[in-house]
Amino acid sequence: MKHDNLDNLLRDTLKAEVATSAERLIEFEERVIMKLGDRHPRLRWFQWLSQLLAPTRGTRFGQVAIVGATAAIFLFVGLTLSNRILPGGEAPKLSLQPVMLADGNQEVLFVLPALDAQDVAVVGNFNAWEETALSDPDGDGIWTTSIPLSPGRYEYAFIIDGRWWGQDPLADEYIQSFGEYSSIRYIGRGGDGA
Amino acid sequence: MISRKLAVFWIILIPLSLAVGASAQIPLMEYEQALYSIPVSNPDFILSTIELGMTQGDFPAEPVLWLIDRLIGHPAPPFEKEAVLLVLAHALEDGLPIKSLINEAFEGLARDVPLQHIERGLSVHLILLAEIRDLLYSKGIFNVPAGSPQTVPTAIPMLRFNQLLIHVSETIGDFLEGGGSPFEGHVLYQEVRNRLTMLQGVTLLPEDVELVLKRIEPSDLTQAALAAVS
Hints:
Chain A is α+β, with helices and mostly antiparallel strands. Chain A has helices at 3-25, 28-37, 45-53, 61-85, and strands spanning 99-100, 106-113, 120-124, 132-133, 142-149, 152-160, 163-165, 173-177, 180-187.
């Protein structure tokens, strides 16, 4: 075979292959775009959440149901565990909000964390600065007592194993008296007693 | 039926009110016996002021007796105990409320503060009470005896007037005790405003608070504080 003939043969073959491939390239771009259009974009978590919570997306009901069910499971597990951890399965009944009594006074709770203390008491102008003992029946280091007080301003301090402590974190303000701190609480202010 | 209920009500109420009255009024003889136990050098003067105080509506009868009892058990010499009681006697003689003075004495005793320091603190407090009383008078705010009609809005019944007096003077005392300067009149005024506002509608009437805050000025409080520290 001559070289010229071989060249011609190769050229014709290549032309035929290019023509076939070119046919495949027709509308290739449109087809790619169409394919991409069927796919959802990758969303960030907050975008996903906003879509999930969007009220108009009725189709998201299933996802909401999944989230709700997960929350319910966590709640159930949490309550079960708390019932096992807390003795008697009941939440503590302590409340920092004063409780209104029938005579117009308020049952005011005094609380002090004192982990290694043996004796804790509160003194103030409501008990003529004579000690009222706090108790810690469950031994968790949280000492409490409730004292019925009429609305007004009260000055007080704690005594922990004989040492005075006048800076109660629950106080409304602090003053210095005889060179030491005392705590102040306003009872009955706006009905909150804080 | 109703008359039977009323009869039962009165049968319960009358002995109850008599019992309450009896417990509120302590015979002068009890104070006298307690004073002789200290003993004080001039019991007659102290007793006469206690008798005078008993005529006031807010005389803290039981706390006064408790204070004398605590002083009896105190190891300090009798003249120091008498000095504490004399401050109270002078306040009563001057017609000033002693509730806050008694509280301060109790606190000092509970904190084991020497009696001389307690007496000094009480004296400062007494000056402040007198200064603020005079200040309120000078601003046209007067007190009227309990039971008397309130003829003008600036004449406040004694118990309400004394409440204002106690809180304003205590605020200045706390401010000075906390290291504040008498010359910081505006800060002092703000402290007084805060305290009265906190108690507005609780133990103080809003109109009384408004009246006092409207009439007193920072410079007035500076004058009172200066009188106490000088």
